[in-house]
Amino acid sequence: MYKIDTYAQGINSLSTKGGCWTLKRGNGEGSIYKTRRGRWIAALSIGHDADTGKPRRKTKTCRTKTDAIAALDSLKLAFAGGLSLSANKIMLIDYIGTYVDTYKRGYCRQSTLSNYNLYVKKIKSLPLCNMALIKITPSDVQAALNGIGATTIRMRVLALLRAAARQAVVDRLIPADFCAGCRASSTTAKADKIKVLSDVDVARLLDAVKNDKPLDIAARLMLYTGMRVGECLALMWTDIDGDVLTINKTISGRGDSMTVAPPKNGKPRRVSLPRKLLADIRAYQHWQRCEIMRQRDTYCDSSIIVTYDGRICPPNIVAARLKMIGATVGITITPHMLRHTHATRLFAAGVTPKDIQERLGHARLSTTMDIYTHYIDSLDSRISSQIDAYYI
């Protein structure tokens, strides 16, 4: 005879069956029993076979009663709790593809969808891509992420995996998020990794691009209005009314896949143009009109920033040109660095964070403060002077 402690409340009776003790519970609650060989079995009824009508049961063999209790709880969570019985047959890569097609296509820009497809391809190269959803653990995900070299790709892949895992929980395919606790990068703040151009760097950049008229005016627009590169390239002459610029669209993609869509936060915004920038824009407009006369048949005269042959300029061309010119003057430059520089300079000039948020077109003020403003050493001495003013 085997001594058995009470398993939990709700036990209906103790019985012997086939020479072993059984903890009998109500329907759907499962049971635990010990075999003659000393093994504990957790068993759960999960319904009846559609063809034969016979009961279907899931069992798990354990070494101890404690393990069997935990196993029964796991079985109830996976099967009696309403989770899909086919979750152990759905592979991660299949669900990821379905997730992107169902929840992302039609709800994000084409360029963003293209990026998702790139991350899906990256996931296909990971060891866990052919694992069943219900068998994936956070340690499996973390080990796969550690094998990805580029930090940015790791972060994007983890974001996609986490979003899909949370949806799988909602779909009752898995009991919990298998990305819980996973990390893709160090705890270093993103803002600390983003560079801001100094006054000397800005002067060197503008001097280097002064002979490239379209690139020069594009750099000045991003630097002195804080526009994103796609928003800058989507500007048309009709968007300028006096000294006010209306930003109501953005360009993404490259080549034949370029698309025009609303701004990132979906809302148009109006930006006041500095007097000197407005003068440079008018001078550029005069230069462009001369170009239109030379290339009347092919020139796109409605857009502000175009290539030398008059076509709409894709964002990757501007980024490549800035990178090349930056290398010639010994500085690293990206279009987004000009936006960061603009925000940081406004912050240093004492502009309120709310006004900076509106100018940059951020949906949340926290984005402006946490990412787009950077500590400036000169501000510290200004703070000291202000303290002196009220020091007693």
- Classify the helix fraction into a percent range: 40-55%
**Strand order, sheet with most strands:** 1-2-3-4-5
Largest sheet: 5 strands, antiparallel
Task: Give the tally of β-strands.
Answer: 10
Gyration radius (Cα, Å) is: 31 Å
Instruction: Please indicate the percent range of residues in DSSP E strands (runs of 2 or more).
Output: 5-15%
Overview of the molecule:
The protein has 392 residues and is of the alpha+beta class. It is built from 15 helices and ten strands. Helix 2 crosses helix 5 and helix 8 (213-225) runs parallel beside helix 12. The chain has a five-stranded antiparallel β-sheet with strand order 1-2-3-4-5, with helices on one face. Strands 6-7-10 form a three-stranded antiparallel β-sheet, with no helix packed on it. It is 47% helix and 12% strand.
Summarize the SSE layout with pairings.
Layout: E1 13-17, E2 20-24, E3 31-34, E4 40-48, E5 55-62, H1 65-80, H2 92-104, H3 110-124, H4 138-146, H5 151-170, H6 190-193, H7 199-209, H8 213-225, H9 229-233, E6 240-241, E7 244-247, E8 250-252, E9 259-261, E10 269-272, H10 275-294, H11 315-329, H12 335-348, H13 353-360, H14 365-370, H15 377-390
Antiparallel strand pairs: 1-2, 2-3, 3-4, 4-5, 6-7, 7-10, 8-9
Helix pairs in contact: 2-3, 2-5, 3-5, 7-11, 8-10, 8-12
Task: Describe this protein with a few key phrases.
single chain, 47% helix, 12% strand, alpha+beta, five-stranded antiparallel sheet, 392 residues, three-stranded antiparallel sheet
